[in-house]
Amino acid sequence: QEGKAPADKVKHDYQSDVARLRKIVINSLYSHKEIFLRELVSNANDALEKLRITSLKEPGLTEGGELNITIKAIPEEGGKGGKIIIRDTGIGMSPEELTANLGTLAKSGTSEFISKVEGDEAGGNGNLIGAFGLGFYSSFLVADRVEVASLPPKSKKNPSPVQHVFASSADESSFEVYPDPRGNVLGRGTEITLYLKDDALEYLDTVELAKLVAKHSGFSSSFPVYLYELETKEVEDEEAAAALKAEQAAKEAAKKDKKDAPEDEDEAVVEDESDDADKPEAAAPPTPMKNVTTERWSHLNASPPLWQRDPKNVSDAEYTLFYNSYFKDFKPPLGWTHFSGDSGDGVGFKAILYLPSQLPDEFWQKPMEYSPHDLKLLVKRTFITSDLGENKLPKWASWVKVVIDADDLPLNVSRETLQNNRFLKQLRGIIVKRLLQLLQKIEKEDPKKFDKIQELYGSIIKLGAVEDTKNREKLTKLARFKTNQRNDTSFDMYLENKKQGQEQIFYLGEMGKTAEELSQSIFAEKLIARGYEVLLLTEPIDEVLFGTLREYKKIPFQDVAKAGLKFGDEDPEEEKREQEELTEKFKPLIDWLKTEAKDQVRDVVISNRLVKSPCAIVAESFGYTANVQKMMSASNSKRGDMLHEFAMKAKLLEINPRSPLIEGLLRRIEDLPTDEDERDPETEEEIKEATSILIDGALVRSGFDVTDKNQFFTRVDRVLRRSLGVPQNAKADETVKPAPPVDSTLPRFKPEHKPLQPVVEHADDGKPRVILPDHMKDKVSIEMEEIDDDGNVIPHDEL
Ligand SMILES: Nc1ncnc2c1ncn2[C@@H]1O[C@H](COP(=O)(O)OP(=O)(O)OP(=O)(O)O)[C@@H](O)[C@H]1O
């Protein structure tokens, strides 16, 4: 792909991703084209930063010239076009680096990013800029042609570097790299020349450029940024003044000659005197002026950075602009806190911490790999690191964007010694504390904004309460949940609404269920009917948090799906008596159920949680709720473990003594002769069927799976036949029209078609499953007949 062009010019084709990215940048960011300056200044700043850090090990590198950035606009003679030159005295690039850095995209995930944006109609919005540093390619927003001349510093490794140029036009699919015909004129660093497009000539105006730097880059460089300005001043034209003086003197002399002449002397004198008295003093001749154009480099970022200023004098707009440019996030922040402090060791610092209004995708997608880069530790305005090593922020807080500038840490500390620095060790605590304070402040003062915080950071706050034991209490207070009565309820709000006598915090959770569905739950029937508030856990992290906390302000959590539920207003004596009475009354039914439900539950008890439903399956405190059981089977864990078997079985069948169905079942059982031999087998079978449907119904309503679906439906089928008066032995007419004979004249498949052969797989439970080839999936549906062990077809209504 490379060919030698004349004059040492090596032509390269852009890597395809670069060509695509350049196209996106040029087409979609047109209305944001001013960002080119911010991106190039930021690259220049990075290059200076790299040089400074490298020079800690090889001090000679920074010799010769200040570390700075300069911007110069040069209108073309005749005023038709022009160019902008941005230079830095940073680390520079070798010809290989020019090719690799500007001609390829090394960043991982870039291809996916590009595809995403290409497919996204809204790609042209500013998110793009925030999501991805477009860097160098933003040059093509304003330039038809870009030339980058670069010269690395003389170093031990590269003692005689040669200045090279990278050149490319906006519409070309290739670029060239060649030795700079001017020689090593840069001394060190990089010079980017932008040949401006006709619609970008406004950037030749130095006032415009200065404004842009102030807006986007004023704070983003800790190195001085200079703008080349031509200043036109009106100054006294000394030459003209001298000439005028000479002329005046000549006039005076001529006048004097005239005065000395003899004629009309008196008259003339009188006339002169009266003139002097009436007229204002004769105006002095104007000083002759001329326009002089002087060149100067004005220092654009001389004023102190935002974080060094007094918060009282910084406007919200300034905080937002600073955030946008410094952290390269196009969206405004959700909130911020600007603070200063002292580490206690005499290290003073100033800092601003921001809450972004959007989390990076990687935060959730690759939570373990996500490494924050928006913590900027500076020392005396110079960037030191984003990496706090082992003192890094806890995961839940790792997304904050914070700039923290310390007064007096040794500047040349290596990363290793930094890790041991006390200030660095304290940083984590300082930042987390301020972040919490900010969240608490918003909670207190700005409910609307706090809603947004919940939307965005709700799960993260809960994650923090789980993982950050030190701040668990504060984070728990900030957590919000849905309840049967309202949204966004905190534990404190819940407790304020607690009923007299209530000594439990009621909650209910089931994987994948909405709050609405949960509030219909059989377990909460009575609680909700009586007006109690139940926290509804709708997010996976809720369950983990409740499992971790177990209580709030010493009040225990009660999983409503578990045994042990107490309203708190029960009279223990009365309750005991009632329980005894009911147990006595329902004894025959309870005994019956204990036998019939022995495979599903450990015991049968009278319920105090049901209103309408006849019965429910409730997990005991050490047993699995339906939710946990689902999670266990999803993760396939613990199968075959004794404890697991035990927990699976630790369930109670609770019956509702006031349900007419339960009463009805009790009566039927009481009517059965006590001597089993005297019982009519058909009647007994009928009651067993009804019982089993009742138990299965309770399982389903309580969120569990029916143990044996075949048996369940066979029974439903029999009950249906009975209630419809259809004899139990009546058979469906199973005669079907056989298929016509084989037609051998047609090919079975067209050659380009895949065989229409479904594949049968056996799932874990041994049941067959049909896997359709992909091309058949949305065209074919399959119904299967089930055959029992004796080879009989199990009847299904739909077959
Ligand atoms: N002025 C410069 N001096 C030295 N190297 C530079 C300069 N500008 C760009 N580079 C090099 O080119 C690379 C690509 O630059 P580009 O702006 O496209 O992306 P980036 O700076 O790596 O990413 P981002 O803009 O997201 O920070 C940089 O990583 C850097 O190595």
UniProtKB/TrEMBL annotation:
GO terms for molecular function: ATP binding; ATP hydrolysis activity; ATP-dependent protein folding chaperone; unfolded protein binding. Pfam families: HATPase_c_3, HSP90. CDD domains: HATPase_Hsp90-like. Residues 262-278 have a biased composition (Acidic residues). Residues 253-292, 732-771 are annotated as: Disordered. Keywords: ATP-binding, Chaperone, Nucleotide-binding, Signal. InterPro entries: HATPase_C_sf, Heat_shock_protein_90_CS, HSP90_C, Hsp90_fam, Hsp90_N, Ribosomal_Su5_D2-typ_SF. Residues 749-771 have a biased composition (Basic and acidic residues). ATP binds at residues 39, 43, 88, 93, 101, 107-109, 190, 415. Belongs to the heat shock protein 90 family. This is Heat shock protein Hsp90.
